[in-house]
Amino acid sequence: MNKPILFLISTFLLTNHAVAQEKEIAINLTVDHNQQAEVIRGMPAILHLRLVSLLQTSYTEVLGAVPDTIQNDPGLLRHLDSVFAPIEISGPGTPWYSAVFFRIESADKRRLTLAPFHIIRPQPDTVSRFNHEENLHIYYGIDPETTLGWKPGEMNIRGGVAFQKDGDTLWSRPIKLIITNQEIKKPKSLLQSQMVNLAEYWLRRGLCEKARPFAETVWANDSSSIANAMLMADVQACKGNNAATLAYLIKAYEEYMRQPDRFYEPPDVLLRRISEIQEGMLHYTE
Amino acid sequence: VATYEDDVSFVWVILKGGGEFIHGNTGRYVVYEAPEAEGDVQIEVRAYNPGSMKIADQKSEAGKISFRVYKPGVKLDQTPLTWLPEFQQKLEKRSYLVYQDKGVWKDGLAHQCRIHHFDLMGVSNEPGICMNWPCVDEFLNLFPDTCPDLVFMKSDRWDRFDTTSCERCMTEDTAWCTRANSLRPEKSFTIEVASWDYGSYGFIRSTANSNRSTDGLYQSVGWKKGELKHPVVGRIVKHEYSDNRVTIPHDVDENQVADWGWTTVAQKIGGKTRVEDPWEPKSDKDNTPGNKHPGDGISAYEEYRGFYAKEKHVRLDPDIKNILLWNRDDTDLGDFSNSGIAVTQIYRNEMDTGRVINNNRKSYALGFDQKGIRLMEENLAHLGLAGKSDSIGLELSHYVYVDPRYKADKPFWRYIVPHELSHALGAWHHGEGYIHGYLPRGNSVMIDNRTGRNDTAVFAIFFIAGEAGLSSGDRNCWMRQPQAVNYCIAPGEPGNIDCSTKGSSVDITGWKIISTANKDFGRKITNHRGGTGTNANGQCGKDAATNRGNCLNQLKISMKP
Lengths: 286, 561
Hints:
The complex is a heterodimer. By secondary structure, chain A is an alpha+beta fold.
């Protein structure tokens, strides 16, 4: 039975690993979960870049499939070591995403000045090791003020990662931003959903005060919405105001309890947040 | 040979072995047709002067010719054992002339040459090229064809016939032929068969008679059972044919799956990658992980025929339950691999808009749509959730969502993704309710042996584990809902409430409760109801509700009705 396995291993190594290690990584870049999106000038855009391992298996799994007789074969082990070695993306002590950069081109292939891309929440891991089950993710935000300054048209953006080891850069497929004629200069012209987007964007940027007016407007328009109450709670949490955060969370919970047909999944995040904040607000005596 | 003076005649006589002279037995030249039976032939020829001669004729000895007649035939090579059908792949098949000598077929003699005729028979015409590609896409002009999967392509070395007119994706050719012949008489001729499907199967036969008969002058020499072997001990050769047909691929048990078996991408359980030719191609008995719902809705032949997964073809393991997943945002699947279920990630257009992944089924089809899962990251703040599946079970779980805002919380993230995916595969929580304990302003509750008084809110709210509720059962299981519930009723205290189906709202003034780790996220899916940790020994949430727990047993991938 050894022969088939040997055949398999050799096929596996030849087909999957005869190329440079960096080729086992794909860089995927999306905007609003897609390869292209319309951007209204004055609204933010969020790019999601991730490094995805194309290896379908792990060192242990491959070694487990090798016959016992060759498990200690130095040549095989060297080969596997090279295939599954940790990938150095950035230099020692620097987060992996310091090696990420972008190339922006307009549809007529003119290269444009780099827009200020801000790393937004959730914060990326700083470690550069990843494997076939765990990818690396990073989110970049483009501020509304930036998009407001863009001209209508199209632009392509590629994400690139320069690898520390040999200086090679791996590029993503381009995403296309379609900059519309529409522009938003005054909050009054915003739709409810746009205000929610703006509030959530500024919260992900960590700028609570910029988020607050949008959240407050949304809340004023509809204070019976769980989503709006949660948004207000997020703004208050961002500002570190526990009492106000709890108040809004409880409002959201009360709305949830009023719902006649509840979803099978309870609002676990809401419940957890209420408990965590409330516990610190009780007056304890031994 | 004697010398004759002038007018000479010759008479030919077959002394032994049969046969006949086609245009008579006299003359300087005759045409001899050998008998069909193998054997030795002796022919005699005599010369004489016919009519009246001027001088006396000299009588000479008759000349004799002896030779041996052999039965001719044509054989066809077996398909190489390791050859597996693929899309747009070629297979060389050699037909060669032979002769029979004392019952043994030997390679043809130097002078043997014939036109070789080839027939593809019983050829599959599976829709598309594998189980999920292409799906119908009018915009991209994609459609699954039903043309023959094995054909002879156009060539300047052979003619082809028996044309089926049929459109395929990714080629402008519309003529597909299953008959061909060599342009010139040859002793040996190699033709190419083109495969257009990852599950192609059929027979090829060669003949060397102009009417393509298998038992004319040139016998189409069949393979004997003893000459055919299956690599798996105990597997028998299904048929011994009277002609030289062989299977494509090598498939002596004729189950339409290559005898060699196939390789899969390494899958979690044991890193096993080799798959043997299955006994029963229509079986769907995948039992890893084992539970009361065997199978994954894909028959063994279909797992062999395979799927397009991110534009690469993969064959799957018929012993391991497989689920196809469109993972829009490359979300990490956390601990899901601990379930033992193998996930094959695909692009959106590698399932149809109804999530069906086996639209191109035909041979050994199980008779129902099998669906995949869509996983995507969305803000779920409006629901107060970190994740949700549209429903419980694969039929109605159109989307599974997780909220990326919680991605940075690693222990939570590696729990919430498999939790929601398991809902999509049919698993329920351990129970559904919890105790909604409210504490009016100014009132107190004993928490962890400390008195906590509500001095601020009109009501403080405590989410307390109820019997057989959300947080009951095995704390190691990811179907237990840990984070909604933060407290247990202290041991020995009255007031526990059955929360198996719904919660209850209670004034908890004066209660004794203890806090419990609400970040104790299960890292596997377990198969019992019993409470563990704080739920053990009839404490806190106790065992999972009746008909709950046993979560692994609830996972049902096959959509068999």
